[in-house]
UniProtKB/TrEMBL annotation, chains A, B:
Signal sequence range: none
Sorted UniProt keywords: Ion channel, Ion transport, Membrane, Transmembrane, Transmembrane helix, Transport
KW Ion transport (keyword) present: yes
Any one GO CC term of the record: membrane
GO process annotations (BP): malate transport; monoatomic ion transmembrane transport
InterPro entries referenced in this protein's UniProt entry, alphabetically: ALMT
Main subcellular location: membrane
Membrane topology, from the record: Multi-pass membrane protein
TM regions (residue ranges): 52-71, 77-97, 131-151, 163-181, 193-215
Family: Belongs to the aromatic acid exporter (TC 2.A.85) family.
Gene source species: Gossypium davidsonii
Protein location: Membrane
UniProt name for this protein: Aluminum-activated malate transporter 2
């Protein structure tokens, strides 16, 4: 007893030495952590209420398949195999319809194929007698596991059939090995396949019928909102860059100028959503063979534009800023370039969101292009006097040049959005409000 | 019969109409596809032979646990529960030690916890009589599935314990539901826990002992090789940019200038490897609590530099290039800036790889910084004559400005690599070859 007390004291001392909160404040510390965790959970639910719905759906699906155990006639026909329906629901039920369907189809087909092959392997192994059987089975299991594991490294297969291969290895091993102890292999395969199908279809049906979450719709929205984020940055950039430090507070506290950062790392998310979306049937305005590749193309171009914006953002907060006089000379053209590209991106984003042919975007792009031309003319005309320090021109010239790159990127994005609009036959709606006239140069409506 | 023939013909016609290769060329088409697939597999193995070894290890682990079925004394004590050992091996065995350990620990702990709670739930449900029992059990299953599914959305938990939560839902549901049919719940929990532990430890032991793949080592190498890729680009950039189009072939065919592109999208990979690495025990020069966060910090800075390089790369292939005279004036300083930053990055990469304190990197960075100063002086001194078209100066000024950004980024990277070197007590090795002298300005050895 004494020994136990002593060791408890040692543990306590050790904890204290490691800066653990003293026992007195410990419960308070735990309370704070728990409160923090709960407020995080509430925030997760508020950010996307579909998460709450999904959790309830998962609970519902699981409760439904557990009827196999509770309801006597069902239990009679499946017995413990009903367990596979429960397992299938837990592992197959995913957030989006596409992901659930993809996993369900993978699991179903892999179980069928592996079950068939395992029966064959069992028959072959049976021929080798009671001593040879485990050896032959062992070789089969080793070979199929090694080959299937290696095939999983193949990127094209990993993207769509990784889960199927995992289930293939699992089912083949389980059935061929069980066959050694249980001669009713065919019945085993039959029961397993049936329960997997029941579990899988429960998931798919609930996923599709109860407040469905479509990965395709999510990809569609993600692409549009990424474009919008860049647009917001560009609309604000001109004013922010040319505003003099003495005009007011620090530039750093502008959250709307930081929204674009999430676009830089969105590739993985886009790829995953496109992979899920490919499994989804026709829904709403999305067909089965919707041009998801075109979305990825637009996403890649948006990211390319975001890289330029990241460079621009660096100049927003650079310590050495050019003198007011130097910047003022190109302020108007640069602000127009940035503003018009931003408007074009927001227009394009809205066009994707509403699936209406972009109308004013081309005009904004033409305006930004004509600003580029104005800038060229300005520069050719000897903008700054001879005494101007070239050193001070460099940062301004860089911002101008990056903005020219952004205008080019925006035009590329517009082109690929127009391709998408043609593919999907976006609606043509005459705008009720006429788009703004460009601030410099002649308005060039309807060009390109 | 006629109907069947007719429908076959319809299918064939349909296939032909869809551009399917005609039946005559079909087998050839399949042959080509199969050959392509096999050459892809061979390439995958050649690119990283550890993949082949991993596949053999997976086969070995699976064959080992299948002994539970073949060996009578083992089968006697576990029976069909041995299946759980097979399932555990298939789903837990991952490429790296960290991923395998993470999944194994998650699975083990989740099974223990869920098993305990499920026994409690079973006891409570037992109190409600034969009719009340399924209702109480159903409520428990629904609640735990919904709550656990929701908690999986929490990003911090998803990163480390997602698999554990999945297994928690699975085990709790299986055991509490099975309890309805089988009163030996405790034995069920005991067998399941033991088989999961056996399967999990088989995976971990094989993963650690047979040609282990350490996620930590992979992260370490990835960070170093990303830095090297940027270095290669920067070393080649100066010559490539200032080379005149008439000098030779197209600039597009320079694969060494495209290597940096993979750095842009490496965040997901780095995050995943760091998550796995956190599970790994001490190995080689890596401790259990290795500063993986510092690697992620270096990775983020490297990516920031890569975004600037992406902008630079755009200027390499721009149609409008400044005239030779304009570019020649800053050619030397720009080439030095680019070359010295590139050398610094390659030095830092080598320092990480060999875990030796970077020696020459500081000198290269000082050289690149002094080139920035030289450029400032050049620009101040009225570099171009008054008749120079400002329009032609802009692209050159942009390249110079982006290179200045790159120099700043490189200095930041060097600083965080030095922090890492201090944390990990990198070896100090006196170089046998003295680093090159800067081409412009005075050598500034040993500064900063």
């Amino acid at each position: 007893m004494d020994l136990e007390c002593a060791s408890q004291e040692t543990v306590k001392q050790g904890l204290l030495a490691r800066g653990w909160p003293p026992i007195k404040g410990f419960s308070k510390h735990v309370k704070t952590k728990v409160l923090e965790f709960f407020s995080l959970l509430i925030k997760l639910g508020q950010d996307d209420p579909r998460r709450v719905v999904h959790s309830l759906k998962a609970g519902l699906a699981l409760t439904l398949v557990s009827l196999f155990y509770y309801y006597q006639p069902l239990y009679k026909s499946f017995g413990v195999s009903a367990m596979w329906a429960v397992i299938t629901v837990v592992v197959v039920f995913e957030f989006s319809v596409g992901a659930t369907l993809g996993k369900g189809v993978n699991r179903g087909l892999a179980t069928l194929l592996a079950g068939g092959l395992a029966v064959g392997a069992h028959q072959l192994a049976n021929l080798s007698g009671r001593i040879g059987e485990p050896i032959v089975l062992g070789i089969f299991v080793f070979l199929q596991a090694a080959v299937s594991t290696f095939v999983r490294f193949c990127p094209q297969i990993k993207a769509r059939y990784d889960y199927g291969l995992l289930i293939f290895i699992l089912t083949f091993s389980l059935i061929s090995i069980s066959g050694f102890r249980d001669d009713e292999v065919l019945e085993l395969v039959h029961k397993r396949l049936l329960t997997v199908l029941i579990g899988g279809s429960t998931c798919v049906i609930i996923s599709v019928l109860v407040f469905p979450v479509w990965a395709g719709q999510d990809l569609h929205n993600l692409i549009a909102s990424n474009m919008e984020k860049l647009g917001i940055f560009l609309e604000g950039f001109g004013d922010e860059y040319f505003k003099m430090p003495e005009d007011g507070e620090s530039k750093e506290d502008r959250p709307f100028l930081q929204g674009y950062k999430s676009v830089l790392d969105s590739k993985t998310n886009e790829d995953a959503l496109a992979n899920f979306a490919r499994w989804e049937p026709r829904h709403g305005r999305f067909q089965f063979r919707h041009p998801w590749k075109q979305y990825l193309k637009i996403g890649a171009l948006t990211r390319k534009c975001a890289y330029r914006i990241e460079s621009l953002n660096g100049h927003l907060y650079a310590d050495i800023q050019a003198k007011r006089e130097i910047r003022r000379k190109i302020q108007e053209t640069c602000t127009t370039m940035s503003m018009e590209s931003g408007k074009a991106l927001k227009e394009l984003s809205m066009a994707i969101k509403t699936m209406v042919k972009p109308f004013a975007a081309d005009i904004h792009i033409e305006n930004s292009k004509s600003s580029v031309k104005n800038l060229d003319t300005l520069l050719k005309s000897g903008l700054w006097d001879d005494e101007t320090d070239l050193l001070e021109v460099v940062p301004v010239a860089t911002v101008a040049s990056l903005l020219i790159d952004v205008v080019t990127c925006t035009a590329e994005i517009a082109e690929s959005v127009n391709e998408l609009a043609t593919m999907l036959k976006f609606e043509v709606v005459e705008p009720t409000v006429s788009p703004e006239k460009p601030e410099t140069g002649q308005p060039k409506i309807g060009i390109s």
